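Q: Could you fold this chain for me?
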Amino acid sequence: MEVSVLNIKGEDTGRKVVLNDAVYGIEPNDHAIYLDVRLYMANQRQGTAKSKERSEVSGSTRKLGRQKGGGGARRGDINSPVLVGGGRVFGPKPRDYGFKLNQKVRVLARKSALAYKAKENAIIVVEDFTFESPKTKSFLEVINNLKVDGKKTLFVLPGADKSVYLSARNIQRTNVMMASALNTYKVLDADVLVLTEGALPVVEQNLNK
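A: Sure. Below is the predicted structure, expressed as structure tokens.
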């Protein structure tokens, strides 16, 4: 699949790049996408919910009433879960919600997500660019020139670029990330994927190991 290379002014440079069919031209696997997105969402959970059980509640361990002859149920200490202020039975504990997912499945999921974007013609390739200093106005001009304003856009750079990142930080519906950190969720969450020329070989190298 050939894609024209644009500059940050939105003009066609006359050059074209070929998107690797082994990455962008595969038949998407929906189940692999589901598993990888589920893993990503699980890893976003803090897992810090915690409630106190009977042994952790502060209170006297004195037995509230005699064992027999009271006419009611047996009563233990004041920390009993059946009493107000007592401990909670089987409450939440700190835990890690992540799970194991084979590397091959994760790679397949990311290729599938990119393949969907390629089928939708939602991939734009631009020349590598940077800014001398962080400036939101400069990044807005790039968005307008590429005609992606109003769309949820993901810019993929070959490496860390503080000026570009800070320029886009306050713009709604716009994200910037490194090619090495590209994941299934971010690709699918964007309406348009803007790849810089330098990011293309990084993406292909990571997904064709």
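A (continued): The longest strand covers residues 12-18.
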